[in-house]
Each structure stands twice: as structure tokens, then as C-alpha cells.
Amino acid sequence: MDRLDAMQAFVTVADLNGFAPAARRLKLSASSVTRLVAGLEEQVGARLLQRTTRAVALTEVGRQYLERARRILADIAEAEAEAAARAERSRPSGHLVVSAPVMFGRLHVNPLMSEFLRRYPDVTGELQLTDRIVNLVEDGIDVAVRIGDLPDSSVVARLVGNMDRVVVASPDYLARRGTPLQPAELRDHDIIHCSGVLPPTEWRFEAEGQALKAPIAPRYVTNSAEAGLWHAEQGGGLTMVLYYQAAEAIAAGRLKLVLEDFEPPLRPIHIVYPAARLLSAKVRAFTDLAVEFCDWRFTRMRGGRS
Asked: What HEC string does 80-108 produce?
């Protein structure tokens, strides 16, 4: 007889006032529960329960033993929980929920998740793509990929890359309308504004180390960078996007860079997780893999930096 199983059976019988309900709770037969309690009484050397045809009652010895049994079972449960927590912190396992911006997540975080799950078979993964800033704790997010400055001091951040923000247009549009040489000239052009990047009233640049704001009056506004870039490729106007979003179209010649001398400072890419949470093995492994597996430096050579 397993002493702990017998203790659990005895405590359950005492709590539920009967062998039948205890058997249902423990998913055992009533005869099995009876044998466990009888074996425990034999080991203790005293009767713990008074049995009648309708109910059971604790003996004086049973009341004293019940308190000790409860403490022993609680201590064991606590020790098991601590051991599980230590294992979780030392070996990647469990369910990992990652949040990332829609386009960046689809193009770059999704391959990272695939490699992570391949390397760590004890982890299940969930990738949530959204362009809004999620609350990690309230939304149940283990780790998030964020682009740009981090005003939230309640998260721990690890820098994993950076990127330029650029203005682009199609060669056809620039041939028809001319290429702006100063941000102030944007007022003479059709503007495609991707609302997930900046407010719809201005674009921000930098000139000789000083921040510069250029008012805009968009002709086309979309919350999708992909939609804005597609319209730009059709000759629809100028748009400001993150460099990774336009890199393939630029390399293919479908889009050209504009106002390169006024591009704002690089935007950082961070992996963040809640500061109040112990760093689990799965989060640590995911972050380490991002550094090893990903080249998230979406920048051009300019002004001596890349």
C-alpha cells in the first residue's frame, strides 16, 4: 500500500463524509478506498474513522491524524509545484505566446517561431499578429516583438535589431511629378499615409541632427503598409514606411528612395517580456534564438552607420 495514496483517501473520506463520494472524487472504486483506509489504520495502529450504515465520523485519533495528514499532503504538493517551476525555468516547455506587428511578424517572426518549435519539442507556440501595443500581462503574452522606442517601463527589453524609416515612390510617379529634395516639398505631392507608422498630419525627419516635422495632407490613408506600398508601386504617390517593408521592392527597382538625407534616426527592435515575471526557460531560449537565428538589421549604409 502506498502511504500517500492511503492518506489522500482518508482525508477525502473525512472531507466528504463517506466512502462512496470519496471514491467518486478519487476516481476509484468504493472497495479500493475502503482497503486504503483500512490499511492506513493498520499501519497507524488505531481506528481513524467510525463507520455506520449512513455516515462516517472521525475518532479522536482520527481528528489528530487528519491535521497531520493534511499538512503532509500540502507540503508534498508545494514541493512538487516548486520542482515543476524550477524545471520550467531550466528547460523550455509549456505554451509560449508571442505578439508581433502584422507584417513584420508574418515575414520575420513566423520563421523564428518555426525554428524555435523545431528545436524545443516540449513547447507549444502561439503567434498573435497585431499592430496595436498589447498589454503583456492582461493579454496573456509571454514575449512581444516591438519596433520603436519603449515608453513602457514595466517590461524588460532586449535589443535584437534596428531599422530605417524611409520615403519611397515608384520611378513612374517620380518621372511624372518630380523628386522632392526637401521635406517641405511634400505639400506638392500625392501622399500615401500608412497610419500605423505616424499620425496622419505630419511626417518626421531629421536635418543636421535636429528633428524636423513636415505637414502632410494625405490623398490615400491605410492602416496596412502592404496596401500603401502596393498603391505606391502603381504610381499612386509617396509613402513613408519601415525599410524592411519596402526592401524587396526597392531592390527590384519597383520603388525608389526619396529624401534620403533627411531620414530620421534608426528605430530599435526589441524583444520584451513582463518585468514582474520570472524569466522562464522558454522565454530565455526564444530571445537567445532571435539573436542567433535572425539578422534584424534592416538598415542602409548612410552617414557612416548601417
From this structure: HHHHHHHHHHHCCCEEEEEEECHHHHHHH
CATH code of the region 165-262: 3.40.190.290
Q: What percent of the chain shows pLDDT beyond 90?
A: 38
* pLDDT band (50, 70, 90) for residue 264: confident
- Residue 45 gets the label, from left (phi > 0), alpha (psi -120 to 50) or beta, of left
Contact by Cβ (8 Å): 100, 127: yes
How many residues are recorded in the chain?
306
Select from 258, 65, 102, 235 the least CA-distant residue to 166: 258
* Numbered ranges of CATH 1.10.10.10 in the chain: 3-90
Q: What's the rounded mean pLDDT across residues 243-251?
A: 91
- DSSP alpha helices (H): ranges in the chain? 3-16, 19-26, 30-44, 60-90, 102-104, 110-119, 171-177, 225-233, 243-252, 281-293
Q: Which pLDDT tens digit goes with each residue over 159-169?
A: 898 888 899 99
pLDDT at 86 over 80: no
Which residues partner with 274 through β-bridges? 155
End-to-end CA distance of the chain: 70
Q: Could you give the count of Cα atoms lying within 13 Å of 186 in the half-sphere of its Cβ?
A: 26
Share of the chain above pLDDT 70, in %: 90
CATH topology of domain 3-90: Arc Repressor Mutant, subunit A (1.10.10)
